[in-house]
TrEMBL record:
It comes from Streptomyces fodineus. This is Peptidase S1 domain-containing protein. InterPro entries: Peptidase_S1_PA, Peptidase_S1_PA_chymotrypsin, Peptidase_S1A. Pfam families: Trypsin_2. Signal peptide: none annotated. It comes from the Bacteria.
């Protein structure tokens, strides 16, 4: 199984709230209902990494309609863990969830029933979502909310996050049980819901200045400008594909994010755009 150190657990004091994952080195994405009523901005939470490290964070944004929340990691902490790339899932793809609510619980895995589609979530908003089948008929999946949906199998070489688990479908034959059908908001949906992810901000969160070699720090402004120029050229192509209806809005958002990360990494390596 490849490293899955990007998922986290959220606590307030000693109360476990739920799961989430590192969307960038500065932000954790989770389901709003996992915060159990902590809807005020600037509410403080503890972020516990897979190695047991405990970081301070605060709720910086939430979207009730989409049942999504964004938690900012305190600037006093530096997260150097690798962040998986975002991607797009299609019907028939395998998926798995590295997060589980307790060590005694199973890891979820299954198949994507259909690609991105509109879905009326319990928050009341229409979101771009993935419908998933889980191979594990647990009857209740509520503890898994907020965890990442990862494309492919656990043994695949590089994790690609395609969504965040939000809801379970009820079993129509037994109202007190859930069917093994789950719904996840796409990463693109989260990107659109929160305005923290413009080009300049992404440059900073993808490669914080404090984690760069000294020479790279010295040239940070030039690097960001060059990477932004490279990313913008890709944005033009992505927009063209969108106008030709080759991509849906969620795919556009996800590909923009991927383009920014790739452009920044190329510039830091000194590669040509």
């Amino acid at each position: 199984m490849t490293d899955a150190s990007y998922w986290v657990e959220l606590f307030q004091s000693q109360q476990r709230l739920g799961g989430g994952f590192l969307l960038t080195r500065r932000y954790v994405l989770t389901a709003l209902h996992c915060l159990r009523g902590l809807t005020s901005l600037d509410e403080h939470v503890d972020i516990v990494l897979t190695d047991g490290s405990r970081l301070a964070g605060q709720v910086c944004r939430h979207d009730k309609d989409a049942d999504l929340a964004l938690i900012m990691i305190s600037a006093a902490y530096e997260v150097l863990l690798p962040i998986p790339r975002a991607g797009v899932a299609y019907g028939g793809d395998d998926w798995h969830g590295p997060y589980r609510p307790a060590a005694s619980e199973v890891h979820l895995r299954g198949q994507v029933d259909s690609g991105t589609a509109e879905y009326l979530c319990e928050g009341g908003g229409v979101i771009q979502a993935l419908q998933l089948t889980a191979h594990q008929p647990l009857g209740d999946y509520s503890g898994y909310s907020g965890g990442p949906v990862v494309k492919g199998l656990p043994e695949d070489q590089e994790p690609v996050i395609v969504g965040i688990l939000l809801e379970q479908a009820p079993d129509r034959a037994a109202a007190d049980r859930a069917a093994n059908v789950l719904f996840a908001a796409t990463i693109g949906e989260a990107m659109r819901r929160f305005d923290q992810f413009d080009v300049e901000h992404l440059m900073d969160v993808v490669h914080p200045a404090s984690s760069l070699p000294q020479q790279a720090v010295h040239n940070q402004e030039l690097t960001v400008d060059a990477a932004a120029s490279s990313a913008e050229s890709w944005f033009d192509r992505i927009d063209e594909w969108s106008q030709r209806r080759l991509l849906d809005p969620s795919q556009v958002a996800e590909l923009r994010f991927i383009a920014v990360k790739a452009a920044m990494e190329r510039q830091l390596r000194g590669d040509d755009a």
